[in-house]
Design a protein that fits this description.
Layout (H helix, E strand, L loop, with lengths): L6 H4 L9 E5 L4 H12 L3 E6 L2 H11 L3 E4 L5 H10 L4 E6 L14 H22 L3 E10 L12 H20 L4 E7 L5 H7 L3 H11 L8 H13 L7 E4 L9
Parallel strand pairs: 1-2, 1-4, 2-3, 4-5, 5-6, 6-7
Helix pairs in contact: 2-9, 4-5, 5-6
Length: 253
């Protein structure tokens, strides 16, 4: 006797059907792939980003519900965006911002302070604006990283932020409940941002990771997006940090 198989058994309902997902920093890389996956799961998506042309192209590609072009670290403009957004929102993902690397002897302290203020400040400002606008049981998903967990020249600022963000997210999960709050912590991800940081060393870095990572390949934006959407749909998850690095942290050095 064999089990019955067929289309009816292979199909499942989209997990975000009828829900809204805002992606702050959604015009490229991890944010864009998360928006794409959310759309595939039935969500209506709203994208924000600094580059109006790139944002418009991403919106056309996805069939986004709407877009808003602004710098997320302009907190007055961020507050205006939330005030004008349709509510209730179901999920907000934040991928905006970037790491600051510099040896201490060469560090621009003003730039370092801006990096800390913008990264921690952005989490706090999104959390503040989420209250009353994100529904109970909805979620905030922030993106951090794993690179700053090791010590090294040039990692002072990113190291401090890497330690701070998980504790901040855990506490926000308590204070914003029943809104859920989680942190995704990627290692190296093959994105346009990575390409801009590494320049002509990008392919060398890719090959190194292919040959050393336990998964035998480079982590891409779609890998992070799959985790981000899972955090939106699994209502038992809040207050935690989830690594997606292909086993990079397991390697010596």
């Amino acid at each position: 006797m064999t089990a019955e198989t067929g289309p009816a058994h292979a199909q499942r309902a989209p997990e975000l059907l009828g829900q809204s997902v805002v992606v702050i920093g959604g015009s490229a890389g991890i944010g864009l792939e998360t928006a794409r996956r959310a759309r595939a799961e039935g969500a209506e998506v709203v994208l924000t980003g600094r580059n109006p042309e790139r944002l418009a192209e991403a919106a056309r590609d996805l069939g986004a519900l709407g877009t808003s072009a602004f710098d997320a670290t302009d907190f007055a403009r961020l507050g205006q965006f939330f005030a004008e957004a349709p509510s209730p929102l179901d999920h907000v993902m934040v991928t905006a911002g970037g790491p600051y690397y510099a040896p201490f002897a060469e560090m621009d302290l003003a730039a370092a302070r801006r990096s800390i203020d913008q990264d921690i400040g952005l989490v706090l400002e999104v959390a503040r604006n989420a209250v009353g606008r994100v529904r109970a049981g909805g979620s905030l998903v922030f993106v951090g990283g794993t690179g700053g967990r090791r010590t090294g020249i040039g990692l002072s600022v990113i190291g401090a932020l890497t330690v701070a963000l998980p504790r901040l997210v855990a506490n926000l999960a308590l204070e914003l409940a029943p809104i859920r709050v989680n942190l995704v912590a990627p290692g190296f991800v093959d994105t346009p941002l990575s390409a801009s940081l590494l320049g002509d060393q990008l392919e060398q870095r890719r090959e190194q990771l292919r040959s050393t990572l336990p998964i035998g390949r480079v982590v891409g934006p779609a890998d992070v997006a799959a985790l981000a959407v899972h955090l939106m749909t699994n209502t038992a998850l809040t207050g935690a940090t989830y690594d997606v690095d292909g086993g990079q942290q397991l390697l010596p050095g």
